[in-house]
Design a protein that fits this description.
The protein is of the alpha/beta class. The protein contains ten helices and 14 strands. The chain is globular.
């Protein structure tokens, strides 16, 4: 294995493209370049989690072993992919072993270097943590999918599938009918009775005046596609940490307009309720959501 400091030409890795320029420059200055020959173990399961790896070229395989030495092959990764994100977030021991399948060129960032970047650029710590969380979620889903592929469950026909769903719904209906407390078949998200919707025209007026805080409660991928200019992204899955880091000092009397309803969830209602519980009493839901905003506000009102 060979070690070299970055040559200063910059790191053009796909996972860094959303980070601010100064952060990418800082990573370029701090990161090291390492080359692992084919067959080399990069780290073993249980090793200290002290660094994060980005693959420039080559290929690695990731696998786990039980106490009984039963090995589970998880996945293979190649150029443009990464591993070891958990180390930057928690420093937890490695959950798997990584081995170079062929000569592999890696860019390596240590946890100490990552912590140093956060100290030097506290204003961008939130965007870095959100980015790290998304890497972690994506890689966990990928590893779980690879693990699941090793097991072949019995095939279920379409008829069996609908039969199972039908029986489940029937059992739930019978239970609700016989139980006075009941259980909702579909979860209901209800807006706090102290909060209300705000008409789109009134919201646009507030936007032009510039005194109102707009909150986009949708998942980050929706926010990245398009959002109201200046809106703060406060996804429900990361509500507590983002609120603590960016909104906890906001004047509780300031007007807040929340939007973010999709086919799969009423994120605006959930976020508004959470804000109200944290003492923000001047909170409103944008009536009609993004679709109404785009219709009434025009393309210039969307980032």
């Amino acid at each position: 294995m060979t070690n070299n400091h970055n040559n200063g030409n910059g790191i053009e890795h796909p996972i860094l493209k959303k980070l601010p320029f100064e952060i990418r420059q800082e990573i370029t200055r701090m990161a090291e370049e390492r080359i692992f020959p084919a067959g080399t173990t990069i780290f073993e399961q249980g090793d200290p989690g002290d660094s994060f790896f980005m693959i420039k070229s080559g290929k690695v395989r990731i696998f786990r072993e039980t106490k009984d030495l039963m090995m589970t092959e998880l996945t293979h990764l190649g150029p443009g992919e990464s591993f070891g994100e958990m180390a930057l977030l928690t420093g937890a021991p490695r959950a798997a072993t990584v081995e170079a399948v062929k000569d592999t060129h890696l860019t390596v960032l240590s946890k100490a270097q990552f912590d140093s970047i956060l100290q030097r650029y506290p204003e961008v710590s939130l965007s870095l943590i959100i980015q790290m969380a998304s890497w972690l979620i994506e890689n966990d889903q990928m590893l779980e999918l690879e693990k699941t592929r090793q097991y072949q469950p019995a095939k279920v026909s379409i008829l069996d599938y609908f039969l199972i769903i039908g029986l489940s719904i029937l059992c739930a209906v019978i239970f609700n009918h016989s139980n006075p407390n009941g259980i909702d078949l579909f979860s209901k998200v209800v807006l706090n009775h102290n909060l209300a919707e705000i008409p789109i025209n009134a919201a646009i007026t507030d936007f032009k005046l510039g005194n109102t805080l707009f909150v986009d409660a949708r998942p980050s991928n929706f926010y990245d596609e398009q959002h109201i200019p200046g809106a703060v992204n406060l996804p429900i899955s990361l509500f507590d940490i983002i609120y603590m880091m960016s909104l906890s000092d906001t004047d509780k009397s300031r007007k807040i307009i929340v939007y973010g309803r999709t086919v799969s969830g009423k994120y605006d209602v959930e976020a508004a309720n959470k804000l109200y519980l944290r003492g923000h009493k001047n909170v409103f839901i944008l009536k009609g959501g993004m679709s109404s905003w785009k219709k009434e506000g025009g393309a210039s009102s969307i980032d």
